Amino acid sequence: MNKHIFLLLGALTLSALLTSSAAAEKVDVTGIQSPSEWEISMQPKPSAKEIEAARWHDLYTNKTASYSYEEASLRPDDKDPDIILVNTRTIYLDSALIAEQNKKFAAQLNGADRVAYSEICLAFRISDHTDAIDRSKIFSHDGKLLAAPNYERQFKPIPEKTLAATVYEIAENFASTGRTRIIN
Prior knowledge:
The chain is of the alpha+beta class. The chain has helices at residues 2-24, 48-55, 95-104, 163-177; strands at residues 56-61, 65-70, 75-76, 83-92, 115-125, 130-140, 145-147, 156-157.
């Protein structure tokens, strides 16, 4: 008799566990056509902000700004393989510079929004150690594009101890090895 009660209780417990786990794990499969499209991960998906932060590799910071480059942007120019293109980002830290830029773009800034950073694509001619600005964009703190001036490349010698000199080393390494990082 006790044996039957234990078997009945075991069967009821097992059926309750099976139905509760099936009910608890309702997965939204809207838009998924086949099981190969499913994603299984223990890690949460990164936010848009985290993805954007991961794009950039810090170079250095001084009292004026914080400088970084986008590793994935390193590539030879389509027309001249001796020219290497690299996207850089400058986050403004100097309050006087920010105030100057805020005045310049006041008509485009809303409320407490302010000028925050610029992205500049630098072109490096490796063979003669020169650089030029290929294109640039200036953004507000809220992510609004404030300016995207057009440039005609004017290559000039790279001054020492500048952002261009630092990024030139990365571009030169990429041109000679194909690597996007300098390995010491």
